[in-house]
Specification:
Elements: H1 2-27, E1 48-49, E2 53-54, E3 73-79, E4 85-92, H2 96-111, H3 113-120, E5 125-134, E6 140-149, E7 154-165, E8 168-177, H4 185-197
Antiparallel strand pairs: 1-3, 2-3, 3-4, 4-8, 5-6, 6-7, 7-8
Length: about 200
């Protein structure tokens, strides 16, 4: 009888001990990696990278605000001395299906962004282009939005990409004054490929 009781106590102790180990293993699951400053498109002045932060930034992204969930999202901002900025935002969805749906919503939001901007500012002019897909992990797509305000004389160019690796969805943004001709489109495509490939 004592042997049976001892065996039961030992089994219970092992089961209890396994709980924190399992939880620790889950907590230690790797988070998606982010771009470094050196992996952004070449610039005439060096890129500087902020720390990776949890949640969403206080100033939301122009074309994806309201689409990216705050939960399970992290982001990193980048900047140069010449007012060129960039941002990477990554969300880990609970399932692959939800990640796929989020990527589609983000792409749709970027594709319709210029129309929304024009509706808010009738004096705004611009052109939005889809620059095709990139064959990396579950795929990525690259876009540009070229805007100008003739009354003010300002022009802005923004590049966007949306990519996915399993449950992780990442958005890379790049922007500066100027137009598409002065934007590092090929460099941005390479940055996008790196961003998606290094998620996991």
């Amino acid at each position: 009888m004592n042997h049976i009781r001892s065996a039961a106590v030992t089994a219970l102790a092992l089961a209890v001990a396994a709980v924190p180990l399992t939880m620790a293993g889950a907590a230690a699951a790797p988070l998606p990696a982010f771009l470094s400053a050196a992996q952004l498109p070449a610039s005439s002045t060096p890129w500087q990278a902020d720390p990776v932060r949890n949640g969403l930034p206080e100033v939301g992204s122009m074309c994806t605000a309201g689409v990216t969930p705050k939960a399970s999202t992290r982001y990193r901002d980048f900047r140069t001395e010449l007012d060129t900025t960039a941002r990477q935002t990554t969300t880990v969805a609970s399932t692959t299906a939800k990640a796929k749906a989020l990527a589609e919503k983000l792409r749709s939001s970027i594709e319709t962004c210029l129309d929304r901007l024009k509706a808010e500012d009738p004096g705004l002019e611009g052109e939005a282009l889809h620059h095709g897909g990139i064959d990396v992990e579950e795929g990525a797509h690259v876009y540009s939005i070229d805007t100008s305000h003739p009354d003010v004389g300002s022009t802005d160019i923004a590049l966007y990409s949306v990519g996915r690796d399993g449950r992780a969805v990442t958005v890379v943004e790049w922007g500066q004054l100027g137009d598409l001709d002065g934007a590092p489109l090929e460099g941005f495509k390479k940055t996008t490929a790196v961003a998606v490939a290094k998620l996991y």
